[in-house]
Amino acid sequence: MSLGLAYLAAFSAAFFSSAKDIGSKLLALNISGAASSVGSFVYALPFFLILLALLHGLGYPVFQISSGFWSLIILRALSDAVGESCKMYAFKHGEFSTVSIILSLLPIFVVGLSVLITNDPVTPALLIGALLVVAASLTVIYKNPQTLKGSCFALGAVTFMATNTCLDRLAVQTAHPVFSGFAMTALAGLFTAPLFLFDGSPRELLSERKVLGTRGLFEVLFMAAKLSALTVLPATVVMICMRSALIINVTTGLIYFREGEAKRKIIALLLALAGIIIALI
């Protein structure tokens, strides 16, 4: 993949990420965070299987794996199960726009973890950009009791999702991105099952099957785009590109979900966008 296509994949991942996040918030209005978490994995698997069959039929080596693949996938799936669950509960208990901005903390977490896990270089521009994005998140973490619980879950999601991105960067070096995504998703769904048995029910998965199915499709497109970008670009660059999803998320939160604190969130959005631009110049 060329550098230009890698950037296109990273920004496409931002769009698909935003689309699936909106689906997650809609689900949070009707079902538990546990059901939404498991459903996000289960409903994505059929689309992964279709995509794998299509790529295999076209002659792509989608089933070739290198040594160390399964150990990485198991670690990543465990981290994804916890991170996705935290994210779903964050949408359940917090404002969509607020949670989305707090998730902007991801770049600075990825910057720190990438030095330890992937050995990707960190330039001054990347660091400054990441810090600006962090400043955006801090503007919406305030003492509003209605958003505190969602904010705490969002911070938990950030920690594990940053780890996911670094492990993704390693995983795509040992197998095809689509097969990596399929294996991660299948195992993450399995690891999330105990939470679902405790705080969810099969009826929830059936009652919202249309939204879950649509979200599952966007999950596959998101993973395929993100993992493809990571075959060329460092984890820090991909994550910062993906934060451009804030534009859609914050706008949706303010207009569609009619959430408050518009001025504070617009300032946060502008800080985050400035960080993204600086990091990518």
Keywords:
globular, single chain, mainly alpha, 281 residues, 14 helices, 0% strand
Q: What structural class do you assign from the helix and strand content?
A: mainly alpha
Number of helices: 14
What is the radius of gyration computed over CA atoms, rounded to a whole number of angstroms?
Answer: 18 Å
* Secondary structure: helix percent: over 70%
Largest sheet: none
Reading the helices and strands in chain order gives HHHHHHHHHHHHHH
Mean pLDDT: 84
Provide the low-confidence segments as ranges: none
- Strand content bin: under 5%
Q: Based on DSSP secondary structure assignment, what is the total number of beta strands?
A: 0
> What is the overall shape?
globular
How far apart the termini lie comes to 21 Å
Give a verbal description of the structure.
With 281 residues, this protein is mostly helical. It is globular.
